[in-house]
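Archive entry. Fields below.
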Amino acid sequence: MSEIASQSTARVDLLLVADIVDRGARVLDVGCGDGALLQILTRDRNVDGRGIEISQAGVNGCVAKGLSVVQGDADTDLVDYPDDAFDYVILSQTLQATRRPRQVLEHMLRIGRRAIVSFPNFGHWRIRTELMFRGRMPRTEALNYSWYDTPNIHLCTIHDFVHLVDDLGASIDRAVALDRYGAKMRVNAPWWLWNMFGEQAVFLLHRKRG
Amino acid sequence: MAIISVQEADNPSSRIARFGPEKPLQMDAGPLLAPFSIAYQTYGELNADRSNAILVCHALTGDQHVASAHPLTQKPGWWSAMVGPGRPIDTDRFFVICSNVIGGCMGSTGPASTNPETGSPWGLDLPVVTVRDMVRAQAMLIDHLGIETLFCVAGGSMGGMQVLQWVASYPDRVFSALPIATAPKHSAQNIAFHEVGRQAVMADPDWRGGRYAQFGVRPTKGLAVARMAAHITYLSEGALQRKFGRKLQDRVAPTFSFDADFQIENYLRYQGSSFVDRFDANSYLYVTRACDYFDLAADYGGSLARAFVGAATRFCVVSFTSDWLYPTSDARLIVHALNAATLPVSFVEIETDKGHDAFLLDEPDFIATTRGFLESAAIARGIVQPSKAAAAK
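PREDICTED_STRUCTURE:
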C-alpha cells in the first residue's frame, strides 16, 4: 500500500507520526510499505515494531531490513490480533484504501492502547473546487488517480473522520493538519479551516474506558 | 542395492553420534530407545562463543546430506540452493548442522537399522516415531556438540514441523526460526495421501509384514507407487501442465496400451524407480506416520499460541502460492499464533507455480527473503560477516 499516497507527502506524515510515538513502545504499523516508518521508529525511538503489508515486494524489503513484517491485509487480518497487544497501532495513508474503514478502525482501537491514523483530506479546497467548477472527479498531486482505477475507495474529509471517531466512542488525543507544503497548521485554528486547508491529517486516538 | 542401503543405515557416510544405554531417547509412544544413533553432517566452523550454529531439519525423505553429494545417488545436496558458501545459510559464516531424523534410513536409528537385541533390522519393532521424538533426539545431538543456543533452526515441509516443535520444546535454545512450506498440523487430506502411500508399500507382496530384509527382498514396486502418488502432491497443476501437458513420450500417437505413452507417466515412473534406490520402505511408513501425528496445538490444550508463549525467537514464515500440500492458510495459522504469543514474526507468501517443492528450488524472492532475514538476525546476534572476521585476523 506504499504507493497509495505520493512519497513526498508520506515522508512528512511519517516524521510527524514518529514524533507522537513514545520511546520503547510496542507498535504495529498497518500497511507499512517498505518499512520506512518502522525503521525510523526502531532506530530513533527504540520501539518494538511490527508491520502488516499487502505487497510481497514491500514485505521482502522489510524483512531484509530486519523488520518483523507479515504479509497480510488490513481488512481481513487485524481480527487475529489479541486485545491490547500494542501501545500504538498506526495506519498511515491507508485508511482510504480499505474496504471497511470503520471495522479497521475498531480493530485498531481494540488491538492498541492508542491508534494513529493519517489520511488525505477530501475536504481540501482544491478538491472541492475541481468538483464544483470543472465537474470532474478530483485528481490532485496526493491523489493522482482516475476515478475508475483508484485504490482510494473510501475517501473522507477531516470533518467526516471526526464524526466517525465520535461514533466509535473514541477520543482524540491529538490532531494535526498539514497544508500542501507539509507544514503544520495552527493548532488553534477552527475545524472548518482545517477541513478546508488541510491537505492531510494525523490523528492520535484512544478508546474511552469502559 | 538392498545391501548398500542397509550399510547406510548402520554405517552412514557421514558423522555419527552414538548414544548408549545411559542416554536413552524417551519416545512419545512410551518406550525408551537405547542405544540409538544420530547420523549428521556439519559444514562451516563453530565460532569461539558457539553462537553461529544453524540446525537444518530435513523433509520427509531428505537426509543429512544437505549441501554435499548424496552417498548413494551422487546428486548434489538436497538444499544446495539455500545452504553453501555465499548462500543464505552461508557456510562461510555459520556452522551448519543437519541430522538424519530418527526413523530415517541414512544412519540415524530407524527401522532399517540393526536392533542390537536381535541382530536383525528393527523393522516394525521400532516404536512409532513422532516429530517431537525427532526433535528430542536432535536436542541430544546439539548437547553432544556442546551448543547451548542455536542461532537458527530452519526447514521446509516436515522440516518446518521440526522447526515449530523446536521452539515449542526448547524456546530458550532457538534464537531464530525459519519454518517453510509447512503446517502446525497435518490435515485430513495430508493424512489421506500418506495412507495411500503406506498401503501401496504394504500391498507389495515383498513387504512381508515389514520383515523383507530377513527374506532378502525389498518392496520396491509398492514404494515406487507411494513415491509417484506423493510426488504429484509436491507439484502444482500449473507446473505439470507447463512441463508436460498431454505431450507423448518418444512417440507420435497413442499405442493403445498401458505403456507410459504420456511424458508425465514416464516422469512419475522415473521418480518412483529412482526413489527406491535410496530409501527404505519401512522408513517411509515411519516418517509419514510422524507427520500424520503432528498437531502442535493439540499438545497445548488446542491453542497453538500457547505452544509459543514465553519464547522470544524471531520467526520468518514462508509459504508458496501454488503449494496445495501445505497451503498459505496453514502458514497463516502459524503466523496468527506467533502474533498472539507476541513473538517477532515476519511472513511472506512467495509467488510461484512450482508447488510445494518450490522450497527446494532457487526461487529468487524466496532466497532474497531468507537472506535478508538471516542477515538481520545475524547482526542482532552479533555474528560477524566472514569478510570482516577475516579482516580482524
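CURATOR_NOTE: Residues 168 and 235 of chain B are 30 Å apart (CA to CA).
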